Amino acid sequence: MSQKLEEASYFSLAANIFLFIIKMIIGVISNSIAVISEALNSLTDIVSSLAIMYSVKVSLKKPDEDHQFGHAAAQPLAAFIIALFAAILSINLIEEAVRRIISPSEIKISIAVYVVLLITIVIKLLLTKYQSKIGKEHKSPALRASAVDSLNDVLASSIAIIGIIGVQFGLVILDSIAGIFIAFFIAKSGYEIARENIDYLMGRAADEHLIIDIANKALKVKGVEGLNELRTYYVGDKFHVEIHIDVDKNLNTKESHDIGKQVQAEILKLEDISKVFVHIDPV
After folding, report:
1. Fold held by 2-202
2. CA-based angle 76:141:4, to the nearest 5?
3. Which long-range contacts link 71-74 to residues 24+ away (Cβ below 8 Å)?
4. Which residues of the chain fall short of a pLDDT of 70?
5. Residues 182, 34: contact at Cβ < 8 Å?
6. What would the CATH number be for the domain defined by 208-282?
7. Using CA atoms, how far apart are residues 237 and 239, in angstroms rounded to an integer?
8. Which helix (DSSP H) or strand (DSSP E) does residue 274 occupy?
9. pTM above the 0.85 mark?
């Protein structure tokens, strides 16, 4: 599993470095804020890829004395940092675009601008599909966040093309407007990433369907007469479960303990559960 995630991280990084270089060169030559915004958008993707690579490596470490429940929180934490970086960059881009609306600059459009933006769209579509597939297969919030960002980049590049076409028809202001829209897409991407990962960081409880699955797993164990408390919370991108089960008070300690271990084993079969704490209540 770790190899797949690392491969996806390296592939994303290489693609984003390539896109950043070609877009920045063309952006500087053309002086288009839309293309420069796209280049800086790729810069955020490079930072994202580096953060994902590091967080995946950390999250796969085994528990130690300082992190006794593992390092799973590394990925959602990295994704949240990416969201903050995107928000800051979007504000800077909007400021520059507004400045250019007030004081327009000369823009030099060539076929290379269109080629670079079309290359970006193709690569980002492929990246979206690839990152989404690997992210879902291996339950990686950081890689799923990157897939969302890649899809937003496709839309942002499309807007940049519209802005460039507007410039060629004499509507220079469309370049700045396109830059503002791209900044909003970067901000939107950051918001979506933050919204998903804040739940991991805040230890949100499982949804009703998973709670029911957990309860059913426990109640099917022979000797469990009922449940009187069930709590779940995210630790990293998986849930820890605290459950109180009712057992016959006439059972001896070993029998009660064995029932508790069976309940623990059954609940751990659920894919989204990483740890189960069972408390036994004699009734």
Report:
1. Alpha-lytic protease prodomain-like (1.20.1510)
2. 120
3. 71/236, 72/235, 72/236, 72/237, 72/238, 72/274, 73/200, 73/201, 73/235, 73/236, 74/236
4. 1-2, 56, 59-60, 67-70, 72, 142
5. yes
6. 3.30.70.1350
7. 7
8. strand 273-282
9. no
